[in-house]
Amino acid sequence: MRAAVLTEFGGPEVLQLREVARPLPQPGWVDVRLTCAALNWHDVLVRRGQYASPLPHVPGADGAGIRVDTGEEVMILPSLHWGRRENAPAADWQILGDHQHGTYAEFVSVPEDCLVPKPPGLSWHEAAALPLVGVTVFRALFSRGRLQAGEHLLVLGAGGGVATMAVSLAAAIGAHVSVTSSSEEKIARAVSAGADDGVLYSDPAWPEEARKLTPDARGFDLVLDSVGTWAESLRALRLGGRLVTLGASRSDVATIAVRPFYFAQHEIIGTSMGSPQDFAGLLSLLDRTAAAPPPVDRVFPLDAASEAHAHLESGTAIGKVVLDIV
Questions:
Q1: Domain 135-270 CATH assignment equals 3.90.180.10
Q2: How many other C-beta atoms can be found within 10 angstroms of the C-beta atom of residue 209?
Q3: HEC states along 103-115?
Q4: Would you tell me which of 14, 129, 158, 238 could form a disulfide with 38, CB atoms 3.0–4.6 Å apart?
């Protein structure tokens, strides 16, 4: 089968189209003939060697296609071996494309419980782009963050897949959503997608400017931080507010003052990916509300996976980057 393969770690250019063997059969696993795959920042970290993937390796967590044994149209939940507990994954949990060959290929093999019927209302591109960012954001906002209608949410980094999905889901349940961004254009796009307003994070005082967007400038009930700026995010919270953290794209070390943290009764809540139950909750929310799937920014052919990665890393994408496999 054709696949975009890593034989070494590095920049986008290390992704090369190769012929590789199809996945070997495993009990309880199912082959999927992929139609599309979607990129995530996590794939960039895999390509750079962050997760010590075995080489040669096929990256890719997100995908949608045809289940080989039944012919059913399916989406892939890339959360492998979650386990029985909902509060945290099992010890052998992993993300598809870390150590198991992923979705940048014509075929992928996954555990049967990671397959979900493709909703008829989604295009193939949307179905491929939804699972990782959708289940991650659903878990972050609702399972972990406990976001309720009427609460005020601040989403850091408007424009990325996490931010656009968070705006859509939070607005759909009646939360008030603000965003941060490096550009007025991205803020305007977030507003058109359901956000109320936003601030530029290029201003060092952005947490205080963001607080002014809440009633009486008291601060946000919840801040969704996928970039790792904990100290600034805590400044934007109200007393008793919650910080949900799910990424470290800007900083992987955080230093915070302890006394202000506990006097303010703040919470810092970690989360990553999500369970099959979270994914079921996401699909139910999409079905009963006007929440939209993640927007698709650009589509590349499989043999241009390196160009797709370069585009993702450029920071200009608004929404998801997708690979056409067939």
A1: yes
A2: 17
A3: CCECEEEEEHHHE
A4: 129
Q: Domain spans of the chain?
A: 2-130+294-324, 135-270
The CB density around residue 13, as the number of other CB atoms within 10 Å, is 10
| Separation of alpha carbons 83 and 99, rounded Å | 18
CATH classification of 2-130+294-324 is 3.40.50.300, yes or no? no
- Helix H segments across the chain? 41-48, 124-129, 131-138, 161-172, 184-192, 206-211, 230-235, 258-263, 276-288, 305-314
Contact partners, residue 65, CB within 8 Å, separation at least 6? 32, 33, 34, 35, 36, 73, 74, 76, 108, 325
pLDDT digits (tens, 9 = 90+) for 184-226: 988 999 999 999 999 999 999 999 999 999 999 999 999 999 9
Of how many residues is the chain composed? 326
Residue 226 tokens read as 């996928």
User: Model's pTM, two decimal places?
Assistant: 0.94
Angle between helices 161-172 and 276-288 (to 10 degrees): 60
| 75 three-state secondary structure | strand
